[in-house]
Amino acid sequence: MINDFSELKIVEDGVGDFHANQFRIHFRIPCLRFNASNRDLVIQAKLDELASNLFESFPRFFNGSEGNLKPNRAEVEWGERWFRNGKTLAFTLDLKFLSSIELPDFHDDWVGVVENQQGKGFGVQTLKREYRDWGDRVLEGLISMIEKGADKLPFWDLKKMAKVEVKLLRSMLELNRMHVLAGRRSWIVGVVDERLPGWKSGNGSDGKRVQKVIQGKSTTLVYDSSPVFYLETAAVERDSSFAAAAIEYDPGIIANTRDDVKFIWKALLWNFVKSSKDYVLDTRGPREWQSDDGDGLWQEDAVEGVWYRAGEFDSVGELRAKAWVNSILKLHPCLGEQLIVSAPGNQRAIR
User: Are 130 and 84 in contact (CB under 8 A)?
Assistant: First the structure.
């Protein structure tokens, strides 16, 4: 039996540099009330709710196609097929020729859920399709047409050119089944406290305590800036092929890949916070509460309150040598699991 998907492993299947990136947004929930005795229980219940909502309504937040949400440059939907025992997601980037002419949605990037933790978030693995879709059939039709026509060409040079075209189309057929990246991405929700890697002591806040009489009983309630929640997505990945790597250097004729990656994850985080009137954006950045050797890499989107940092590394060893990358791996365990392989820990990137 042939499985619908196979995973694109970062070390074995990826090419080029190792990429690590991290996106973070902070928000408060002023209507959340608790007292000293039930604080942890109330916060954990809210985290359970946030993580469940993120997973179940992920396409809504990502696509941003309703209400006051920001429309994204890509779309995603839950797939009807499964990867192992997990659900799948199909991402489709909106491609335009010279930034204006819409191109057909020819290619989907598939991922499979490999981790789903209650009260925290979920992680996915990039995939290669092992079944044919309509895009494959279009390419197969072109290949068949060229092969049949080549036999009728009068000159040897034209026949040779036709064979080259068929070879290129067969390569495209293979690439069309692959996610452009090999590796994993993860999304988590959390609360800003001393459990964050690189925590700066003394930066916690219990908020403002107010005595109120509720149903004839005096109760201490905590409001305002306590707690500060966050939603974060991070990835450790490589290009899945040299052709995919070349796309990164497209100056925008078809796709501005680096700019698109930043846009789609910023849009997701911003949409999640804007999806509820109970959530209030907190524009303070990660450096407010934690510190590591990647402090200088953080970039802020002042309008949306989303923070972002990224780095490229020649090897797993170089990647793991950075404290800020290790903080990502601590918060997102499934990202680190993919780096545990039989090969040496400092395996060099394939050039």
Answer: no
108 C-beta neighbours (distance < 10 Å), count: 20
Whole-structure pTM value: 0.82
> 152-161, 168-177, 331-340 — which is least confidently predicted?
152-161
Which helix (H) or strand (E) is 48 found in, with range?
helix 39-56
According to DSSP, residue 84 is labeled T
Whether 29 and 278 have beta carbons less than 8 Å apart is answered as yes
What is the three-class DSSP state of 4? coil
100 and 193 part of one domain:
yes
Is 140 a domain residue? yes
Tokens found for residue 198: 């690189």
Q: What is the DSSP string of 154-207?
A: SSHHHHHHHHHHHHHHHHHHHHHTB-SEEEEEEEEEEE-STTSTTB-TT-----
State the pLDDT confidence band at 223, using cuts at 50, 70 and 90. Answer: very low
Range of the domain at 138: 131-176
Burial class of residue 217 in the structure, from the number of CB atoms within 10 Å of its CB (0-12 exposed, 13-18 middle, 19+ buried): exposed
Please determine, for residue 24, whether its predicted confidence score (pLDDT) is greater than 70.
Answer: yes
> Which residues are registered as beta bridge partners of 85?
none
Residues 136 and 12 in one domain: no
User: How far is 127 from 90, CA to CA, in rounded Å?
Assistant: 10
Q: Is residue 349 part of a domain?
A: no
Overall number of domains in the chain = 2
Task: Please indicate, yes or no, whether residues 218 and 309 belong to a single structural domain of this protein.
Answer: yes
| Mutual angle of helices 134-150 and 156-176, in 10-degree steps | 170
Cβ proximity of 120 and 110 under 8 Å: no
The span from the CA of 237 to the CA of 9, in Å, is: 9
188-191-24 Cα angle (round to 5): 50
Looking at residue 73, the DSSP 8-state letter turns out to be: S
